[in-house]
Amino acid sequence: MSIPQMHLAAFVTAGPGRPGGWRYPSSVPGWLNADYYQDIARTLEAGRFDLAFFADILSVPDRFGGSTDTQLRNGALGSLRLDPLHVLSSMSAVTTRLGLAATVSTTYAQPYTVARSFATLDHLSGGRAAWNIVTSFQEAEARNFNRDSQFPRELRYERADEFLEVAGKLWDSWGEDALVLDAAEPLFTDPARVHAIDHDGEFFTVRGPLNVPRPPQGYPVLIQAGASAKGKDFAARWSDVIFCSHASFESARAFYTEIKERAAAHGRDPRQIKILPSITPIIGTTTANAQRLRDELYDLVPPLGGLSTLAYHLDVDLSTFPLDERLPEVEVPGVEGHYREVREITERDGLTLRELGKQYGGRVEGGFVGTAAEVADGLAEWFTGGACDGFTVQAPYQPGGFEEFTRQVVPELQRRGLFRTEYEGRTLRENLGLDRPEAGEWAHRAPLSRRVAS
């Protein structure tokens, strides 16, 4: 009987990302150079990672004290972010198996543009594109796109549902064999196999068809990270991969169970959704060395840099609370999953807001600190214990964190039979063990109200 294989994604930042990590002496500041990302791509492919995953942000956050200062000064979350689709195109040129995932917001983009971009990337990469779907929630982002305020959460997800429907229709607007290329006839494309979609909905009116043939994967792999009740329902219906963050094994396992049950309730095969919680492993030649590295990285985190990032994620101005008292219970317009995580940490460790800022800015998701064998032990426990289908690996500093993990932890997992030694296929879907969607798959994932309306 074969041993189940875990999947690995790498959370790569097209910028400094962590407010302390960029200050570490082994961090290499090549964020504006294609070579920097191409070297990371080669490292990840050598380590047989499933995909490189790029988050994105459409503003320099100003939620902390109404100013961008804490972000820019500390090299925090949104101080510098390149467009991930362009970065992935450069990484595609030097790899043949590594999946390529970019974040694009359904709140500010248009379905035709997004469907076309990801179909193009999927063709040019030979079937390795993935789209991380976000709905956006920050007022700072809204003000960069002709709006004075953000859409309410419910409306954002309603728009996202219709956005995914339109994208699916556009990817399906070309039949599988529509591109004929018969020079003698001549018949370039069979008009009978390409059709308009004539979508006329609440948020979008799109005639179609797409001017790119159907992607090699049918649809690019769809990724989502919803943690609110609405977000989890959206993710369970649409996602092929779910990115999440948890402060403990118990919360990770509870989330895993809930999402798989939600997927089944929507008529989906739970095995067709891969849940990959975020981890930030810190690896040393000895346990003590790893702990010293963790402490060194922690010391480099400026509290206000971490708090400004947390303020962005929660969409709450944390500058209004006393720094030397605990974070009170607050209403969170932003990412509920991050709020639950920091509440769990605050209550468990008794942290003040200042301490929480340092902890959040330099957080080690999952607590995986130790030798390569010890980190592999922890990953195996989560994986075999029903908490995940694999992991999204964040590097405490780039690019060295990915190099250390690939050189030390990956061989440990391979020796235990928990991770591949060679890629299973050519496309990202094949390597993730996901079925290729047939035309019309969008209708099976859309909410029932949209299926009936369409």
From TrEMBL:
Gene3D superfamilies: Luciferase-like domain. Residues 20-386 form the Luciferase-like domain. InterPro entries: Diverse_substr_monoxygenases, Luciferase-like_dom, Luciferase-like_sf, NTA_MOA. This is LLM class flavin-dependent oxidoreductase. The keyword Cytoplasm does not apply. Pfam families: Bac_luciferase (PF00296). It comes from Nocardia jiangxiensis. It is an enzyme of class 1 (oxidoreductase). GO terms for molecular function: oxidoreductase activity. Keywords: Flavoprotein, FMN, Monooxygenase, Oxidoreductase. It comes from the Bacteria. Signal peptide: none annotated. Its EC number is 1.-.-.-. The keyword Nucleus does not apply.
